[in-house]
Amino acid sequence: MFYREAGQYKTTYAADQQIFPIRQDRIGIGVILVLALLLPLVASEFMLSAIAIPFLILALATIGLNILTGYAGQLSLGTGAFMGVGAYSCYKLVTIFPEVNVIVHILLSGVFAAAAGVVFGLPSLRIKGLYLAVTTLAAQFFLEWCFIRISWLYNYNASGAIEVPGREFFGTLVTGPAAGGISRYYVVLAIVVVMTLLIKNLIRGRIGRQWMMIRDMDIAAELMGVRPLVAKLSAFAVSSYVCGVAGAMFVFFYLGAAEPAVFSITLSFQVLFMAIIGGLGSLVGSFFGAAFIWILPILMRVGLPALGVDIAAETVFQVAQMVIGALIIFFLIVEPHGLARLWAIGKEKLRVWPFPYA
Amino acid sequence: MDMLYNILIDPFVQMVDAPDFLIQVVWEGFVAGVLYALIALGFVLIYKASGVFNFAQGIMVVFAGLSLVGLHQKGVPAWLALILAIGIMAILAVCIEKFVMRPLVGQPDIILLMATIGMTYFLIGLGEVIFGGEPKQMITSELGLPTGSTAFEMGERGLVILQHIDIAAAVIALLMVGGLAVFFNRTRIGRALRAVADDHTAALSVGISLNQIWAIVWFAAGIVALATGIMWGARSDVSFALEIVALKALPVLILGGFTSIPGAIIGGLIIGIGEKVGEIYWGGLVGGGIESWLAYVIALVFLLFRPQGLFGEKIIERI
């Protein structure tokens, strides 16, 4: 009743091709954006730093993986390593060129991750499926080894970790240990929103359609004029770029300092789970999945004692892991398209409400 | 020039200079390879019968080892703990078949792979909740496994030390492969398993119960996992770190072919020996620690030339 496109006539091609063709969607997105902007007014420093910022960054990483796995159909288990490439190159850039704005560095660091992604994506031209998963595992372990052994990457620190220096953005400290949650939150929000918008357009356009054609049937796609080489490698490049930016942000705006273990295969799996639970091949699903997997353990840690269940912090983590594992299987069985599909079903119901069928 | 010398000549000079050390290194690699091969064997069993790439084999190894040690710590005698651990693997197999495999029949490979990754997470959480996260000592001597070591003198050239448990591991692996070969080729169930591996639909139409077969295959993989867990646990501790090591079975499988049991064994040995020798003689040139990725890179290079593996049955779909 409220969510219905009836009466919204499109009179130009431009109007027909806009990102959100339904007025209610535009209003909804506007409301969400305004709420996101107003969040620091009500949220505590903990909520911003420990929930909102990592959620947004991990959602961006999930989008990156979704480009590769969800849209182009190439399974990757090396997301964590590509995020690491972004983080380490950003660190190097910031220390070599301290006078350049840190945001520029963060966006540039994705380029290095993209290069790494293309190199390790090369085998995808000959193999696919499980075999490709193994080559991405090679990327994961090899790059992780590089982060540990090549001490040039962390400026010969004794600790072997990268520590983020304080950097300003228009006079406000946005990185480093002294930066406040609010300023970091706004920078992260801006980058994530802009990148999501860009990716949305990329996916709607020629390149994104090529990715989906390759995913659905590579031979048919090739016969229809899609070059697999270009399509696959561009998917690897864009995906790794996004993951690299997310990785740089993960260290610069959330962790503050990072050792190689941060970018281990655990992170790769975590992001993969976010993509699966959220829904492969869906941008809004990436946000759902990231919210679900990041916030569920926190909610359990805070919520269970409040309910009177006495449980150790360690056990909460383990139980959360069990729940997530079980949910992965549940989703794959019951709803392979993830939370995004539930969202779509919900919208469909709203459209015909109050009638059960249209 | 120096660099070339270090890469191409120096390692071999070292090998000839100290053959006892070389033999020791190869033996260490051989034993590691046997363990990789055992894990890969579990993968192959399931892949052959159901086409599922079982990512959870590594955690099954940990889980089997943990239940054995955990039960013993609770005061159960070793032999009973072993039987109970086998029982636990059987229950696990039935549960996996009933709650994971059956509802997902006919889904694409990738979906099944991701389901087994989910299973891995579930089992890690479950194992930590039940047994705790800290590493545990394997009950080697209680199970009647040898613990000593023998030193072989090589004339003037020094000596090579062999751990008895490693020899036992190799023998048990050999027996297991022999047993599986007999099981596959000589028994009624084994024939049914091969029929299912060949063609699900044809097997169904001659009256073979797919569900039952899958439960049996997962159980067999569970037994292999238990043996692996005991052997590996005897060399180091039983801990969840094993789960990452178990991923090495993937390059092993690429080398050996996904459907071949001899392939799993030989692939495991090549990877095991290759990475030990590579680490000792070439690893120092790049700062050491190359063991963690060398196996994957070997597999990557292999993929470019022979994608079906050494003994694989069919050529995988090329693009």
Summary, kept brief:
The complex is a heterodimer of chains A (358) and B (319). By secondary structure, chain A is mainly α. Chain A has helices spanning 13-16, 23-42, 45-71, 79-96, 102-121, 130-149, 181-204, 206-216, 218-223, 228-255, 265-278, 283-306, 313-334, 338-352; strands at 162-163, 168-169, 172-173, 257-258.
What is the share of helical residues of chain B?
over 70%
By CATH, the architecture of chain B is named: Orthogonal Bundle
Helix share of residues of chain A? over 70%
Determine the CATH topology of chain B.
ABC transporter involved in vitamin B12 uptake, BtuC
Question: Main sheet of chain B, how many strands, which sense, barrel?
Answer: 2 strands, antiparallel
- Spatial separation of the terminal alpha carbons of chain A: 11 Å
- The rough form of chain B would be described as globular
Subcellular location (chain A): Cell membrane
GO molecular function, one term (chain A): branched-chain amino acid transmembrane transporter activity
Protein name (chain A): Branched-chain amino acid ABC transporter permease
Membrane topology (chain A): Multi-pass membrane protein
